[in-house]
Amino acid sequence: MTASLQQGYDKRLMLFSGRANPELAERIAGQLGVDLGPVTLKTFSNDEMYCRFEESIRGADVFLVQPMCANPAAGVNANDALLELLVMVDAAVGASAHRVIAVTPWYGYSRQDKKSAPREPISARMVARTLEAVGVDRVLTMDLHAGQLQGFFGIPVDHMTALMMLADHFASLDDDLVVVAPDAGRVKLNKQFATRM
């Protein structure tokens, strides 16, 4: 395997992992036939994040795999995962990456997509604005809490779903399954899921 994958337009794809889910990043790298790029990530004693790409990423399309969720084994909570992604993006932009793509299967703060009461933030929008401000060129995510979150971005968002794959998996287990929605907002999606099964 190689550390980068040549692209048809004289650019290379480089894949790096944050600490939120390195196993996922390894599996993606395996599917692409590339090695994960070397990156040093650490948290200083004062809880500040540090990132350094250990090889040149100049001119590369840099994919950063970092769900915005906790990884207790790595000592990373959801907020750390988000901040670590932002630090990685800033380092990639500063190192002259051609494009920076955030691969965030779990988009943090996605449930905070509207105000439920006065004087509340719309945190999902704030995360989108922050990702754009730090230099993300594109976001790949899965099964957003609400699809309209894509509208918070001024950059391309690839919103993928695992619905069909999960429905096929559960359909193969047992004929006597019950699909339950956690709230009224998920009823439509759960009907699609049940129909697919």
Brief overview:
With 197 residues, the chain is α/β, with parallel strands linked by helices. The protein is 30% helix and 20% strand. The longest helix has 17 residues, at 78-94.
Walk me through what this model shows.
It catalyses: D-ribose 5-phosphate + ATP = 5-phospho-alpha-D-ribose 1-diphosphate + AMP + H(+). InterPro entries: Pribosyltran_N (IPR029099), PRTase-like (IPR029057), Rib-P_diPkinase (IPR005946). The protein is α/β, with parallel strands linked by helices and 197 residues long. It is built from five helices and eight strands, in the order ββαβββαβαββαα. The chain has two domains: 157 residues, 3-Layer(aba) Sandwich (Rossmann fold); 34 residues, no CATH class. It has a six-stranded mixed sheet, with helices on both faces. A two-stranded antiparallel ribbon has the order 3-4. β6, α3 and β7 form a beta-alpha-beta unit. It is globular, with a radius of gyration of 18 Å.
